[in-house]
Amino acid sequence: MLLFPEVEILDFAGPYEVFSVASRVTRRDRLLPHAAFEVRTVAASASPLTARHGLRLIPDASFADELPCDVLIVPGGVVTQPLQDRATLNWIGATAVRAQLIASVCTGAFVLAEAGLLEGQMVTTHWEDIADLQRQYPHLKVVEGVPYVDLGTRITSAGISAGIGMSLHLVARILGDEVARATARQMQYDWVDHPGLP
């Protein structure tokens, strides 16, 4: 899970919770013979950074640590820093080659687009940013009114809390509906999976 200055708190904390709870539930209920997920945060540097609203965060690792990655989550927020930072965009591109799934939450779609990972695809983002995403990346087909768009290896979600629903959808894809439902129940989250378009 990518972190950067001014990252939206729920954009990363919601998915972090989903994947962490899925791991706890699968162990507790013996749904899998192994841990479901190992969730890690990574940033350009392992030094503390400040998320939106002043929350201080300490990433688990830096880009130099080259953590294994099957699922890459790029959250949104104020994405000025990652959009303008070649090291971040290069790291996302290199990690995407190794990852099986790449997902964004909210304005994280801008970052994936800037990294060249959404060329010509159908995507979504926060309702407030739909027009800007379409204008800045005219090769994308930006859709609104959906919680997420799942194109197989690329998934983009709408804003903030939509990342929770998208993450539960990913848990269902990876581990099955039973694990996703058990995770949602543990979180007391009223979850209904959506088809995810197209």
Automatic annotation (TrEMBL):
Residues covered by the DJ-1/PfpI domain: 1-172
Annotated Gene3D superfamilies: 3.40.50.880
Signal peptide region: none
CDD domains named in the record: GATase1_PfpI_2
Domain of life: Bacteria
InterPro entries: Class_I_gatase-like, DJ-1/PfpI, INH-QAR
Any GO BP annotation: regulation of DNA-templated transcription
UniProt-listed Pfam families: DJ-1_PfpI
UniProt name for this protein: Thiamine biosynthesis protein ThiJ
Organism: Pseudomonas taeanensis MS-3
